[in-house]
Amino acid sequence: MQLNVGGQLFSTSLSTLRKHPNSKLAELLTRRTTAAFCDAQGRVFIDRDGAHFGAVLEFLRSERLPAGNIQEVHREAMYYNIQPLIKRLEETPQLFGELVGRQQFLSRVPHYKENIEVLIRIARAEAIAARHSTIMICVLRTEEDLGFYDNAISSLEADKESVVTFGPWKAALSTKDLLDCVKMDIESQGYVVRIEPHVGEKSFLSRSYDYFHKLTFSWW
């Protein structure tokens, strides 16, 4: 059987593609649907980027995992719903740390994903005729930090309306760990950013707070 996956051609057997009956591949290749998804040459057509389909096909043939591009192949395995491949990939060091460590931590940080979207939206709005966009981040590690939030935000000289606040969270990881995650997740979308502590004016009459950090996007 020949397949056309996003313009890339593959040859294999029907039994290989149907190896896991509950997968999307097996579903696509039922007798009812095969005729409806063929290209002009009669090859089964799958409208998806075929760059990593070879690795998926190799697993179906030999149960061999790819040596690289683990996250990309995992994404394809999720799309095709090949559960044995998903499970094996999630046990690799590359994905185990991400799923069990980092993502479990981030799930305990309130509104983390929404805050990442807000940061990007604000930065893009401030990019007009500018080389950089700088946004203030407030990180409240503990409930005790949260209790000082009003005083801390009052002491801030910057625009208080655009401050994006993370936390508090119930996990052992530090403020630096959270900031590393913020940088990683924004850069994974193609942006160039840096994060540095915000140094406010010090006064003998008021307490200084280390909750604030400057996130800077570089556009060119």
TrEMBL record:
GO terms for biological process: protein homooligomerization. Residues 3-97 form the BTB domain. It comes from the Eukaryota. InterPro entries: BTB/POZ_dom (IPR000210), KCTD7/14_C (IPR057890), SKP1/BTB/POZ_sf (IPR011333), T1-type_BTB (IPR003131). This is BTB/POZ domain-containing protein KCTD14. It comes from Liparis tanakae (Tanaka's snailfish). The lineage of its organism: Eukaryota, Metazoa, Chordata, Craniata, Vertebrata. The gene is KCTD14.
